[in-house]
Amino acid sequence: MSADQETAAGVPRDGWEVPVEVPGGRAYPVRVGPGVRRELPQLLSRLVGAHRYVLVTDDTVMRLHGEEVLDLLRGAGLEVSPLTFPPGELFKTRESWAALTDQALEAGLGRDGAVIALGGGVTGDLAGFLAATYMRGIPLVQLPTSLVAMVDSAVGGKTGVDVSGGKNLVGAFHPPRLVLADTELAGTLPRRERSQGLAEAVKHGAILDRRYFGRTRDDAGTLLDGEPGATAALVARSVELKAGVVGRDEREAGLRQILNFGHTLGHALEAATGYDLPHGSAVAMGMVLEARIGEALGVTREGTARELARVLESVGLPTVPPPGLPPSEVLRWTGRDKKVRSGRPRYVLLREVGEVEPGDNWSHTVPDEAVVRVLADGGEGTG
Ligand SMILES: NC(=O)c1ccc[n+]([C@@H]2O[C@H](COP(=O)([O-])OP(=O)(O)OC[C@H]3O[C@@H](n4cnc5c(N)ncnc54)[C@H](O)[C@@H]3O)[C@@H](O)[C@H]2O)c1
Ligand SMILES: [Zn+2]
User: Fold this and answer.
1) Prediction pTM value
2) Active site residue 174
């Protein structure tokens, strides 16, 4: 790319475009950059062409960005109705899904309609599940507004809701037609929510790209401030890395498991704390602990856990589990993860930062004692 095609911050003038392959389906573009939301009407006409749209968003994001997006669509002559629900994970439920289906019917959304999800991962998952099931499936467009949604949930085609038995247990694969990650929209995101998204970005670097991992550490301050250019560069690379994985393995038969690095213990910590710990914080702790397990087993290069802890701390994430959690209690929850295969929890282990040890189909079983020992050590040894 020549210099005159770039802005001062090194952002290409037109942002980035990352194609995501869908095995057995149609590929979709992810457009990333400050201001890409303005392309929405034109891209909808080209890639979706629905007769009516519903814009699904939570009350917070509606208040901050809803009117602007509605104006953008109506200004281009598109028919659109807003459908809203209260913000937060507590509302990623079948009840919210049912209310949204009723509202969509009342709005006259037909088989030739489409769903636009404007919001964080909760909105994307819920609106995605609405699109997957409404009239047996209508097109979905993702407009992520949180960093979690931009670097992670808007790409990959997983949609769903939480039930009393666990998170994300009812859902469907329903890849979007288009994803527009406008980093200006994330400007209103609270700093602690940015840290949550950065946990998954650090994970992408840790499993696939050492240079990207280092850049995240170097840019930590700017990223926490939400600078749209630096954020866009981060999102674009994370999407590229995730797309490279899900494009080859959409349904988690093999390679996609590497995206679960830090998640076996991360999910267990979330559950063991009664979901008091936010997901990104739990995954940050999980990555450090799983790296230490890898080091103890001689699979992961010495010092990797410490390196991870430093980067995670630089982006405002905790790396040590809350005190007073008995290791046996955490271990108990690892056995309940969806990713358990033949009764044994699986762990993704690194060789070093930027590279996963392939093991048996990209994951490993680990002796319980090794997990308990690392949990019992608490934060010791990560420096
Ligand atoms: N489908 C997947 O592959 C996948 C991957 C990762 C996470 N997820 C799901 O994503 C969810 C977590 O996502 P999340 O952290 O974005 O949650 P979220 O959607 O609840 O957003 C977090 C909070 O930030 C607010 N918010 C969002 N954008 C904002 C903005 N621009 N300005 C101000 N406030 C804003 C929301 O209203 C909410 O209160 C979980 O339910 C998780 O299961 C799904
Ligand atoms: Zn995650």
Assistant:
1) 0.94
2) no
